[in-house]
Design a protein that fits this description.
Elements (H helix, E strand, L loop, with lengths): L1 E9 L4 H18 L3 E9 L2 E11 L2 H9 L1 H9 L4 E9 L16
Antiparallel strand pairs: 1-3, 1-4, 2-3
Helix pairs in contact: 1-3
Length: about 110
């Protein structure tokens, strides 16, 4: 498995535009990316300009395929005007509860 946690720091005036872009992209990830096991977007209580994405892919190849998708490239190209910064952590899954069906075989 291959995972990421991405923190997007938004400009105060960029919240609506960024959230709209995310809303356009999420259904396409769900419909066209079988190797994307979890792709969640979170707001942070007390930090209205912060968005946290948790992404879990079947493997590195599934992540690379995700990055090649036109809808992801459109999201990446369009998010710039809304951002103050981005932090990315690459994760190694070592265990958990509520994992996608069959995920245990990749641990």
């Amino acid at each position: 498995m291959f995972g990421l946690m991405v923190r997007f720091r938004l400009k105060p005036g960029g919240i609506d535009g960024f959230d709209r872009l995310v809303g356009e992209t999420l259904p396409l990830i769900k419909a066209h990316e079988p190797g994307t096991l979890i792709y969640t977007v979170h707001t942070v209580q007390g930090s209205p300009t912060l968005r946290v994405f948790y992404e879990l892919y079947r493997d590195r190849e599934s992540f690379d395929e995700h990055e090649r998708q036109e809808h992801v490239r459109r999201f990446t190209a369009g998010r710039g005007p809304y951002l103050d910064g981005v932090d990315v952590d690459v994760l190694t899954l070592t265990g958990g509860a509520g994992l996608p069906h069959g995920a245990e075989r990749w641990l």
